[in-house]
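Sample pair:
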Amino acid sequence: MHRLAIIIIVALGLGACAYFEKEIQEPLPGERISVMMHQATLSPDPELVDKRILLPAPSPNRDWPQSGGYANHAMHHIQVRDSLQENWSVDIGAGKDDKERLNSSPVVADGMVFAIDAESSVSAIDAATGSRVWEAELTPDDEDDGHISGGIAYERGRLYVTTGFAEVIALNAKTGAEVWRRSIGSPMRTAPTVRGGRVFVTTVDNRLLALTTDSGEELWAHTGLTEVASVLGGASPAVDSGVVVVPYSSGELVALKVDNGRVLWQDSLLTLRRTGSASTLSQIRGRPIIDRGRVIAISHGGVIAAIDLRMGRRIWDKEIGGLESPWVAGDYIFILTNDNEIACISRDDGRIHWVRALQRYEDPEDRDDPIIWTGPVLASDRLIVAGSNGEALAISPYTGNILGMVEMPDGVSVPPVIADGAVYFLADDAELVAYR
């Protein structure tokens, strides 16, 4: 594996940005790779093209304890060091193949990185050194191969794991010892969300269950509409202010009271205008965000919306589809669309500030090997996205310009995570790479 440094240059003053840079090469600006792009299908609002984007200052985060960072999935602008280089890399187990795939990003807490491989084996890695602390193989002896793994979440010294063989498991985070195991009757492909003594899990047949963190006892459940066809994977629920917001593969978005599961409101992120086969898949695979009294969510079916958390009233919506989670920072939302575009839109009204087309094919001439991008995350004045082509890009959040690129050991299907000034990538070959 090539050891590549990320050199981050932060310009003084407002609107500063940073970029990836190879050790012996100039950074790759957007113009130099524009021949590999496709024409953007979104257009910036003419009134916003020259409007300056002002982001909140970056702030440090010690941990990244669950999918999306925290239970509400609102991480804003994260601080990393000015100069990062590859610190370590470690193989965590089984990677992506024809039957299995990596479905969940790592989580970071208490100085350790926890990751689940494609065969539901959980590893605890020392964040400082990359050495393995423990490993727990969770697949029952009587289960066949080919189950797609779920994900993990951390809270108060325990890891909570969802699996493709229909079990939720609690582990001691220091030792990997099993605390409890609960069968819920249906597989899971998404990471759990943990908040306030409850573990919230979503099954492949569109059920949300609330379990106790103490024993895994079921407190309540909710069932959404069934969707025959969906994109592989799913999204973890968002929890904040006594409300859990669950996205279903049917395109439903449902808000429920954390205490008893009572439905507060529900919405459907479907577009009335179907423009192709992709839009017929209505799934919400990107995690919803709860941010300052609003729910931000995007569906593969072609709608992004901002919804009042308490009342369920749509504040605005736009016909933009995507599979990845939006990223909210201050007054802006950054999104990856179904058309391999990254865009900055207004949190207030959904209008577009800028849009940048990303590379769609590994072979642009023959249009072979489509590239799937994941992210973005916002760290010290740059957006980071990673692709199935084995590249990670740094993109200016102010202009959309591509500032640089670094190579990964393999394709990347899950977003990077950031904790204590380090950026962690999990590649499809199950190589976990830390930049510090």
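The chain has a mean pLDDT of 88.
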